[in-house]
């Protein structure tokens, strides 16, 4: 049942991701479709306007030529004076015969007019004042219509086609009196065919383009969403099993999604480290506390049975129990320090410390505590204003651990050297003792938790084997390095390296720290 519920949840989330692809593709397709529609409308309108201008010019040219010829007739237009005004060539053309070329010099109509009259798209009708048809070119007879001015052009729609109807009053050239009317109908066959074909091809091209670009958009969006789905899959797997080692694979792409995948993996690695640290902490504490708890429990049981009446046994048991309790307290504190050292970058991301000041203070304090030791400090190669990115208390703790460790393992020579210097990019700190030394085999293990070179001797001195582990975690958490060089019977030197901060980096971190403090103070005030 639980597995079925999980698979249901997972399938629901995958469906959401599918809808994300569908949503993005729909948006892209809609954008492309609207763009193509707008583009098509603009092209269609532009071509239509240009073609319409040509058709209007054709109609106006016909009307103008007829008007220029008919206005020469001084009287009302009649069949008797309109038809004779036509040349024999024009009459023959209107009858459907071949034009007569011998009478061209006395033509009332030129060749352009003849070609216009024979244009199958143009229907010409001349009306007299009584609205009677006195001349037409054999085309469709356009009904007469009263117009307000001398000229009017209208566009009509018939059977999904457009026509232009042009009306013109004919005025006699000398008297300016209206003698008749010219009506020209332009069927615009070419225009209607052009616009129909243009619309058809635009619809086809738009549909093909929309389908093609939608397909391309789907491929692109799927490629973009694929890493997101992979991240979601890994997140679900890690959510189901926090110990899962599943990580996002390398997408081999150089963009923000690859950066997000890398950051996501780093976040999962950090979470895994925290989980492992928690397990190690619980395991280590339970393991190390088992012995002192058992000792205290043994003494208490012994006192309960028969030791209460014997002062010596009572005192011995109480002293042993107190000693073990103190050791437990010290162990717990060290474990907490170790856990905190592993989370430095969260707690102190902007801390800056001046190295020389901390070295002087720690060496001075340790010299006072251990008066039987000579602790020398050499900072000749370290500029006094050198800063590194570390919390001041942690640098002090680190130095105390190393100096205290050297003192614990010293023999007859009660000396220690602490030196510091600055190379091109790094600050070097060396803590040297002249004690027992560490074998080459054990040098790689001394930073492990609870590892003791000489367990019996270390337990006598109160060590738990956590000091160097804390030191290593502190150094690595601040992007530093720590190593050891040692010769058995001659002593050891621990070498620490930290990246040195430039003035610009130091100022930037100081500003961030001040901003964080101001933010914290504001929260506390509120």
TrEMBL record:
Regions of compositional bias (Basic and acidic residues) in chain numbering: 511-526
Residue ranges of every copy of the Histidine kinase domain listed in the record: 284-502
Cited Gene3D superfamilies: 1.10.287.130, 6.10.340.10, Histidine kinase-like ATPase, C-terminal domain
Residue spans crossing the bilayer: 21-47, 201-221
Membrane topology, as annotated: Multi-pass membrane protein
SUPFAM superfamilies named among the record's database cross-references: ATPase domain of HSP90 chaperone/DNA topoisomerase II/histidine kinase, HAMP domain-like, Homodimeric domain of signal transducing histidine kinase
Record protein name field: Signal transduction histidine-protein kinase ArlS
InterPro entries, per database record: ArlS_N, HAMP_dom, HATPase_C_sf, HATPase_dom, His_kinase_dom, HisK_dim/P_dom, HisK_dim/P_sf, HssS/ArlS-like
Highest taxon of source: Bacteria
UniProt xrefs under Pfam families: ArlS_N (PF18719), HAMP (PF00672), HATPase_c (PF02518), HisKA (PF00512)
Catalytic activity reported: ATP + protein L-histidine = ADP + protein N-phospho-L-histidine
Record-level Gene Ontology MF annotations: kinase activity
EC number per UniProt: 2.7.13.3
Region described as Disordered: spans on this chain: 504-526
Organism per entry: Lactobacillus kullabergensis
Top-level taxonomy: Bacteria, Bacillati, Bacillota, Bacilli, Lactobacillales
Intracellular or extracellular location(s): Membrane
UniProt KW keywords: Kinase, Membrane, Phosphoprotein, Transferase, Transmembrane, Transmembrane helix, Two-component regulatory system
Residue ranges of domain HAMP in the record: 222-276
């Amino acid at each position: 049942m639980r597995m079925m519920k999980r698979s249901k949840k997972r399938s629901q989330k995958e469906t959401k991701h599918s809808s994300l692809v569908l949503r993005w593709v729909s948006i892209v397709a809609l954008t492309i479709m609207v763009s193509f529609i707008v583009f098509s409308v603009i092209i269609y309108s532009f071509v239509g306007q240009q073609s319409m201008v040509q058709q209007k010019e054709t109609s106006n040219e016909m009307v103008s030529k007829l008007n220029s010829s008919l206005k020469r007739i001084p009287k009302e237009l009649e069949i008797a004076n309109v038809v004779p005004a036509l040349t024999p060539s024009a009459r023959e053309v209107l009858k459907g015969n071949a034009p007569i070329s011998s009478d061209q010099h006395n033509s009332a109509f030129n060749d352009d007019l003849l070609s216009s009259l024979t244009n199958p798209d143009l229907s010409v009708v001349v009306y007299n004042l009584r609205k009677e048809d006195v001349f037409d070119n054999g085309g469709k007879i356009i009904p007469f219509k009263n117009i307000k001015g001398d000229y009017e052009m209208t566009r009509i729609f018939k059977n999904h086609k457009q026509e232009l109807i042009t009306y013109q009053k004919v005025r006699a050239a000398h008297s300016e009196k209206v003698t008749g009317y010219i009506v020209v109908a332009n069927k615009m066959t070419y225009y209607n065919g052009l616009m129909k074909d243009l619309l058809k091809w635009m619809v086809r091209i738009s549909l093909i383009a929309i389908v093609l670009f939608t397909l391309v958009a789907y491929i692109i969006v799927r490629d973009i969403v694929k890493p997101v789905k992979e991240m979601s899959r890994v997140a679900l797997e890690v959510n189901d099993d926090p110990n899962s080692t599943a990580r996002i694979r390398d997408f081999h792409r150089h963009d923000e999604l690859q950066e997000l995948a890398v950051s996501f993996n780093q976040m999962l690695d950090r979470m895994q480290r925290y989980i492992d640290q928690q397990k190690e902490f619980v395991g280590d504490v339970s393991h190390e506390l088992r012995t002192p708890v058992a000792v205290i429990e043994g003494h208490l049981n012994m006192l309960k049975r028969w030791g209460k009446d014997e002062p010596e046994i009572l005192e011995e048991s109480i002293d042993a129990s107190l000693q073990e309790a103190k050791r437990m307290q010290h162990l717990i504190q060290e474990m907490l320090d170790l856990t905190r050292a592993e989370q430095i970058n969260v707690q102190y991301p902007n801390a800056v410390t001046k190295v020389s000041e901390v070295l002087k203070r720690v060496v001075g304090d340790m010299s006072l505590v251990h008066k039987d030791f000579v602790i020398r400090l050499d900072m000749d190669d370290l500029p006094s204003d050198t800063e590194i990115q570390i919390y001041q208390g942690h640098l002090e703790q680190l130095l105390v651990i190393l100096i205290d460790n050297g003192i614990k393992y010293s023999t007859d020579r009660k000396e220690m050297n602490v030196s510091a210097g600055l190379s091109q990019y790094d600050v070097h700190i060396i803590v040297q003792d002249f004690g027992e030394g560490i074998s080459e085999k054990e040098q790689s293990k001394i930073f492990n938790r609870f590892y003791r070179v000489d367990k019996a001797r270390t337990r006598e001195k109160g060590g738990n084997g956590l000091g160097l582990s804390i030191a290593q975690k502190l150094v690595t958490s601040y992007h530093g390095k720590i190593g050891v060089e040692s010769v058995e019977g001659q002593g050891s030197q621990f070498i620490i390296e930290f990246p040195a901060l430039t003035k610009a980096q130091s100022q930037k971190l100081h500003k961030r720290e001040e901003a964080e403090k101001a933010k914290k103070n504001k929260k506390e005030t509120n």
